[in-house]
Each structure stands twice: as C-alpha cells, then as structure tokens.
Specification:
The chain is of the alpha/beta class and about 400 residues long. The chain has helices at about 20-30, 40-55, 70-75, 85-95, 110-120, 130-140, 170-185, 200-220, 245-255, 270-275, 305; strands at about 20, 35-40, 55-60, 80-85, 100-105, 125-130, 145-150, 160, 185-190, 195-200, 225, 265, 280-290, 290-295, 315, 330-335, 350, 360, 385. Strands 1, 2, 13, 14, 15, 16, 17, 18 and 19 form a nine-stranded mixed β-sheet that branches. Bound molecules: pyridoxal-5'-phosphate (PLP).
Length: about 400
Amino acid sequence: MATHLSSVPSAPRAAGDGFATVDDMVAALRPAHPVFCLRPAVLESAARRFVEAFPGRVLYAVKCNPHPWVLSALHDGGVRDFDTASLPEIESVKGLFPGANAYFHHPVKSRDAIRRAYRDYGVRQFTIDHPAELEKLLDECGGGGIEVEVRFATPPGFATFDLSTKFGATPEHAVRLLRAVADKGLTPTLAFHVGSQCTSPEAYRIALLLAGQILDAAEVPIASLNVGGGFPAAYPNAAPPPLDTYFAEIAAGVRLLELPDDCGLLCEPGRALVADGCSLVVQVDLRKDQVLYVNDGIFGSLSETVHGKADFAVRRVRPGGGAASPNEIQFTVFGPTCDANDRLPFTWILPDDVREGDWIEVSQVGAYSNALATHFNGFYTDKFVTIGA
Ligand SMILES: Cc1ncc(COP(=O)(O)O)c(C=O)c1O
C-alpha cells in the first residue's frame, strides 16, 4: 500500500502561531488563505468529559481530524487509544505517543498494511467483516496473539450518513465469523457503527439488541464489544440529545447482554470529540449582490456541509472596521474553484455590508474538514493557529 505521510501534518507548533482570539489573529495576519483556528482547551475538555462519562474505553477515530495538535489535545484530555484506518494514521499515533494503542479498525486492509502494522508497530487489534479478510490476517500476522473484531451492519435511518452500506457483516455472517476467529485460536471481539452524526440514541439500543442475538447464536466468548462512533455534534441545524443520553442508552443496552465482567466496552468517536474545537477563517474574494465568492469551499475544508449536512454558524470579522451593520441578509456562497458544484448547500446570514476583503469565521469545523480537503484547482490550506490559552 502506498503511504501518504504528507497527508498527515507533522509540523511542530511554530512560535507565533498562538493568539488570544480569532479577531487578534485576523488583525495580525490579515490572512489571504483560509486559516484553521484550533482551541486546544476546548478539545481537551471535550475529550476529558467523554472519557469520564462513557462507561468504557474511548478510542479517538483519527480519520476525523488527524492534525497532530488535535491528537495532542485529545491525549492531554485522557485519550490513550486510537482507531486508525491506515498505516499513515498508525505511524502518526505511534510517532506522537509511543505508548498509545493503535487499533487497525478498517475492515478492508492491504496485506502490506496488515504485515507492517503487526510487525513494525505492534498492532494487535484488527477488524474484519468477511472471511477473506480473516485469511489475510492469518497469513500476514502468522496467527499470533491478535484480537479480531467482527463488525456487523446496523439498520439505516438514524444517522446523517450510513456506513453499513459499505461495511459490516449480516448477523448470520457475523455469527460464522466469530466462530471462525475462535476456531483459529484468535481472540474474537464484536463491533458496529450506527453511522455518523447519529441524532437518535435508540440506534445504539437497536444495534446492541442485534449484538445480543449474534452472541447468543455464536456461543463464542468475546473479549470486548465496540459500539463505534456516530456521536453527534450540536450544529445549529441539528438538535441532538445530550451525549449523556447516548451513554445511558448504551449502558442500559449493554447491561441486558449480561456480558462477563472481563468483557471490555469500547467506543470510537470522532466528530463529537473535535467538531467544536476548531473554526475556519475564510476571506471574501468577491461580492455580487447577495452572492459571496470565498476562498474555501466544498472541495476544500467545507465538504461536511454536503456530506454531514452541517449548517455551520458564521460571523463577519473586520479588524478595526467598527460595528457590523445590524441588518442581516442571506448570501449564497461559492467556493474558490472553477467548478459550479463548489457552492455551499446552505446560505450564510451576515451583515448586509459584507464586502470583498472581509473575513468570515465558520464555527465547529473540527470534524472532517482539513482531513477531507483536496488540492483541486490548486486551492488548499494547511495553516493552523491556536486560539486561547
Ligand atoms: C470505523 C469507524 N469508527 C469511528 C468512526 C468515527 O465516526 P464519527 O466521527 O461519526 O464518530 C468512523 C467514521 O467513519 C469509522 O468508520
């Protein structure tokens, strides 16, 4: 497998990259390129709250935001385990925190990635959803002392985007896979993912009922049960219940399974840990009546407006520009590329005097933003600053 180390930023934190506020950053840098404004304290406390409240072990899903400052802030908040999906993610985690655990929880892996994860990075936890993947693990790890997580598909309809259209065994196949793992002398574990930005806690209860049926049929003891990610962010156009409701639902569902005391409980959130800890500052390149052309868009850091249907809050930043006009109007927003699809699915409500050169702060973009940005048309940003203490 080709590694893409360049896609995992590794630059050390540079002097001069910290600001008290976003307005201070804009006044100092007057950035002509989009800037990610990380709040390490917000990330750290989100991690701490999650780790303290979840009734099991919390793995951070690195794919959601792999920036090393993000990983460090979450580590400061108590996260010691990481859900990784590729060798570069494993390398990044192990490079930053040699003592941390990287779980290789992608159900489909190249043989090369399996071999190197096992041999070079000591990875011992792998996911499968098909017997052919089990054969690959047996071949490449020599069968030695690994935990094999069987992922099953969950019913659709509870999350903004469903992952079970791509991954997850049917219950019948999951039963067979669990038995096959045990027959090969490996340690079976069980997992599901209810889909990302899941606004219905009952999705976890339904998935846990399915897990119970699978375990009853398989009659194979598991070392742990992983309830995945999917925990939502409270975007302005989403009103999810508080995370405690999810944790209570999961705790109740797990109790019904009557798992043995030594069976671990895991989760692997991404979005809920990082969405609030980062905003993005973009600049207006052109205004045409009620249409703004800004320097980031759906091929860059704002693709989550499409995939995650996130209608981020925005505000105008104009250093030294005095009070904003009290009249607010809706603007259609285009990104910087030549593609007409580069148009945000939501309008932005901003003061009616917004003009070329103004900056706009887009909130809650910590999840699936920089991680998904393309270089299309040459537009790309990897400029990060920190805001706050
Ligand atoms: C296997 C796995 N775990 C965890 C996550 C994180 O999900 P979320 O950001 O919705 O919490 C994902 C997201 O795609 C995933 O594929």
